[in-house]
Amino acid sequence: MACRPLAACTLAGVPARLWTCDTPWDWAHLLTYLAQLDERELAVRMLANAFVDVPHEDQPEVVQSWVQENVEYTADSPPERLRQWLEKLQAGRPGEPFERFAGPAATIARGKGDCDDSARVVRAVLRALGHPARLVFMGTKQGPLHVVAAIPQTEGKWFWLDASLRARPGEHPVKAKERIDGRNA
Questions:
Q1: Residues 161, 128: Cα–Cα separation, whole Å
Q2: Beta strand 3-11 with 14-21: parallel, antiparallel or unpaired?
Q3: Which of 42, 59, 60, 98 has the fewest beta carbons closer than 10 A?
Q4: HEC states along 137-181?
Q5: Which residues of 13-46 are buried (b: 16+ CB within 10 A; e: fewer)?
Q6: pLDDT tens column, 66-82
């Protein structure tokens, strides 16, 4: 993985770091590494406790719905001076010039985040509840374009949990986007 921390900062009072990576797929590797720490966060364990009385098979749907209702989708956008500096640093490289990986505690506290932030909350809470949730990166050879949480099922199938779209529980993110945009409805 060719990623390096750039600077320390805080997001909603939670310590965080800004990162730079050499390739877009390095972002995916970094996010996977960071997600391994998520279910240890106190905010995640406290949120998971709110769902322990929900039947186990209903928990994924309830957690996805909670995140959809409580985490507003917003694209990452740094302050202007930082954005200009990052654009110079990123010049000639593919992918987003800026990515803020907020842990679940920061995302819950802010009440907003992009697709990877929402996916990390869903994944971490479900793992704290005993579900084998994972992050799934969707994209092209040039890099990831979207991140969702999913639970592996039998025969290579996935139960999709996209909280950044108004996806239905289990609905594939591409199908959800087409439905929301009115295509192939």
A1: 16
A2: antiparallel
A3: 42
A4: EEEECCEEEEEEEEEECHHHCEEEECCCCCCCCCCCHHHHHHHHC
A5: ebebebbbbebbbbbbebbeebbeebbebebbee
A6: 999 999 988 765 555 55
Domains and CATH numbers, the chain: 3-180 (3.10.620)
Q: Greatest CA separation found in the chain?
A: 51
User: What's the sign of the alpha-carbon dihedral 141, 121, 159, 73?
Assistant: negative
Separation of alpha carbons 73 and 115, rounded Å = 7
Question: Alpha helix (H) ranges present in the chain?
Answer: 24-35, 42-49, 59-70, 80-90, 104-110, 115-128, 173-180
**What span, in angstroms and rounded, lies between the C-alpha atoms of 81 and 11?**
17
**Structure tokens, 63:** 């957690």
pLDDT in tens, 92-116: 554 455 566 778 888 888 898 888 8
Residues 159, 60: Cα–Cα separation, whole Å: 9
Tens of pLDDT, residue by residue over 25-51, are 666 666 676 677 676 778 888 899 999
Q: What is the residue type of 22?
A: D
Q: What residue type is assigned to position 117 of the chain?
A: D
